[in-house]
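Dear all,

This email documents one entry for the complex benchmark we are building for the journal club exercise. For each entry we list the sequence lines for every component of the assembly. Then comes the predicted three-dimensional structure of the complex as a token string, followed by one or two observations. Please use this as the template for your own entries, and keep the labels exactly as they appear.
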Amino acid sequence: MKNRASSHLLLLLLIVGFEIAGYFAIHRAGLLRGYETSIIGAVRDLMMFVPLMALVLWLSRSMRFAGNWILFTTAILLFSIGLLVQYRLYSDPEYNARNKAIAREEKMDALRTRYIMENYDPAKKQMMGLPPTPAQPLSIEQLPHKPSNYTVWNAVTSGYTWIPVFSFIAFAVAYWLCGRDGFLLWLQRNSFIIVLLTLVPLAVAVFTSSAGKALGNMTPWEPSKIPFLVGFAGILTARYKDLAETYWGIPRARDIVPLLVMAMLPFVPFFALKDFGQMLIFSGAYTTLYLVAVRRWPQLLLFVGSVLLVISILVVGALPRDVQEKVPLLPTIARPIGAALPSRIQQRFHLWLDGFDPPSPEVSWWKKDYQDALNKDPRLKELAEQSPAMQKTVNVDIWFDKLAFQPAQAVFGIASGKTTGRGLGLGYPEVIPIADSDYVYAAIGEEMGVAGGAVVILSIIIFVVAGVRTSLEARDMFTKLCAAGLTAFMGFQALVNVGGILRALPMTGITLPFVSHGGFSLITSFAMLGMLMAFSNRNARDRVIADRPTVKPTSSLKLEAVQ
Amino acid sequence: MNFILSLLLLLLFQSPSPTPPLVPERVPALLTLIYVGGLALIVLLLLIGLLRSRRPAVNAAVPQDLPKDVKRRLGSTSTNRGLRALRWLFVLLSLTIFSFHIYWAHYAAERNEKFQELSYKDLRARRLSESTLRGWILDRSGRLDQAIAYYRRDSSGEIHREYPLDKALAHILGSDRGDPGLERALFGVESGAMPEALQVVKGQTLEFKGNQDVRLTIDRNLQLAAVDQLKGKHGAVVVLNPQNGEVLALYSEPSYSLKDVEDETTWIRLEANERDKPLVSRALGAYYIPGSTFKTVTMTAAFLAGLQDTEFTCSSSGFQASPGSNPILDDGGPGEVHGRIGIDTAFEVSCNQYFAQMGVKLGPDKLKQAAQLLGIGTYDTPSEALRGRKEPELWNASTDAVKRALAPREATIVTGKQLTRYDLALIGYGQGYAGQMTPFQMALAASAIANTDGKLMKPKIEFNRPPEVFKQVMPAQTAATLRGIMSLVTGGPRGTARGVFAPIKAAGINTGGKTGTAQKVVPVYDPKTGEPKTRHRIERDNRGNIIREYDELIMDQEHPRIDAWFLCIAPLERPQIAIAVIVEGGGYGSKSAAPIAAALVLKARDSGYFNVSNNQAQQSSPPKPKR
């Protein structure tokens, strides 16, 4: 597998070929369930590979890309899985329907009618009011189905068309910009201002959004991650040597304070936006960057220790009551923490540690939802008032219908997928809300099984390893840190997303990079990919130059040299 | 395209057995496997590419003529070491998280109890049962137009499951919630049973018997008659065919409507109704004190032990099992005196003192033997006996699921060595440690006697299953003798049910039976909420610290509930039906329960059950009971 454009173009063609198989499977399975999936949508999705291949040609011909193609192909692999799952979900009438119950009924009826036509003998058919035809297998084309109403106009104006296109444009722009030394230098020198400037639109977003989402179900502040990362990398590049001079393990105040300020700045808007997932990823990425740049053992221990302390405080504060009571003194410590933690964090921790059990209706963050649900359905309210045992049953019901619905159905879905999955179109991932962006891994786990999950996780590992290699081979600190930060960011984001779905970690609201097509996640991911590939190209050029001992170092080494 | 795919499938999966029909689901499943396989291939290629393009450590811009190890040390910077550590950490973390996926996919369904308990909340299970069709459930006649569970298609094309005998068969058929009944046992699919793509491709599609109708042994008319008879009461009716174990009718009142419980709130409300417990089948799942009906078991034990000729005295002062214990009297109090009687008279008049003494004489071992032959669980200590496990092994059914769905609670008696004479006496006439019987078990006890060979046949509900023997309880001759004794209750001069059965005897049907009346102390119920009233109790140790706090039921000691029982077999010569009836709070057995049994006997006669045995009646007339 050579690192040539032609080999990877071939890989892309292979991906397209297999995608066609996948799309065909979804189409057939849809017919079996009584609805026709849109061929126009499928064609539109497959046409996305045309600009991708154009990008490959552009990169290799006009930009003369010499870096690591693996980054690109892996990202496209994840992208294509995302395309497929998205097609599966939005073609399903139940996923989109306003009235899901009716859509579900229609689906079930289609399955049952088919069964009856194929298996019942004429006498029974007659009793049911159907024409008494003998039992014989029907071909798929003969099945009655609801035709798709997705027109070409829908396809042209849909977000699903334009967001990938914008992402590709973002990719090209990011690649082109980060290939220019002047730009990188500018970034490095003005990191602080960049961060401050990014805060402005974020502040606007804080005041106009609600419940952590804006513009529908999207998070338009995702692209702000890039300037923050770049800014932090810039400051670190400028000061890492100073920071490495420590007194008893702690660096000088005048070095560490601006860094800390810079590090804390992104946390403020994300905290206000209640996007704790992003905060978690940021802390991970920043810590990684710091540790990578300033490798002093005491600081490493200090950081790891403080991270562990914070995590344990959170966990302790959010533990469910009965677990807390098992350890002496724990409840007294936990109570003030529990009171101080935002309710969303408590919710998430409870879902993680004890997801199958509802909390008592008295618990502060559950109380409001519980009362709301009771007020909506007076019968439930009357039942709950009868006795404590009744109230417990009602509580479990409300829990599973409200907060625990999404994670519980996701876990059930993954469990039903087993090793090879239920088959594309043959499972029920449409039951999981937002299965096409936040919970896409659950849909993959259900329909493609452990095998599909392995493909995704391996792809992410390959991507991160390739990204780390880009960082390793970088010759100047800024590029090194940027690449490391971007890779760390994307890697941790993927892990936190998958871990949240699989209950290894508490669920956060973040998406799986490249696979989730939701909102601005794709644009951000492709922009980051563009930057990484620019850095990779840079490395290749530098290597070529450095390996030629007779050639003097040129302008590409103007940036800060490695220690 | 289809042709290519079918060719592919046939090539891949050559099986010696005839190829399974090309179920349309195989196409998407196969394509999924191709897709995932293809992606895995591409990932593998990328991985190979990644590993092959590993480069040695970066060479800084240094002169080439330095010694190798110096170059190496210069090249590998500390930052890079940090990055490599990050890489390994990441790979480790990803694999750890991936292992969670494997856990959920393979182990959670079996090992994680919480998961299993709550898997009914999985919406997929509901879809599975909605999307697969069940077979039709037919009654004894086997006619499609008399089906008891079938599908109907309404004008808009929607398909609904209909239960024409809704309440009458609710406990047997069961609903989608709670414990499975026959509907789910025969046709239910758990969502974990859905095949994965690989299995679909291999043709191992879901083994659901959607096209196989099941013919039950239930007789529609008898079942409806039982419903009629129990209207407005709380109780149960069990009608078996003692010759082959077929269950002809099984009804528990109050019942519930299968259509109504599709609504979750209704189901929750019914489940919480502690007083009426409509969701519980009293025939299979409720314990009652058998009272005098247990004398059939004691009598069987006596005959098996060879003690049938014993005579005991029934006196006005009652029977004292040991010095100082409560005297055992008959229902009529000290005034009811029978004198010195044999087992047949004692059975006819239902003499408690006789059977109490017989219980003492039999002793725990003989009672244990007889009980085990009849399927009653015998335990050494009361705590074990009270556990109330289910007894699926009693049934003769095609699958374990059916056995579990219809499993009765195990009737138990305590037969340990530590039983006192008083305990044995109480057991003898159906009180004390014999107080944990189900109506189903009593019907089985009666049907062992009713069987012409003295065998207890395993009950069965599926028409097409061959009969199976549970145990050979007694010799055929003994069974005939016992039948004769039972006929004294309904036809003898002092039989406790002779009044009720007089018209039946006049109609020419010979029957046998046993009345039973049992007192049970029950909890007090709050009239408003229907919940049992409780009293909060606190146990303290000698320093005043609280050891335990609990809520105790307040029992209504002044107004015990009097349950009425009746066992019946008909026709006597070669019984085709064995009936057990219980009416909670019905008072005397002869008053409430016997008339119900009588009505059912007449209904059975009208349905033609007794025509078969008329020919054999002349050949085997019951021998007179020995004096």
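Observations: Chain A has a mean pLDDT of 81. Chain A has 26 helices and two strands.
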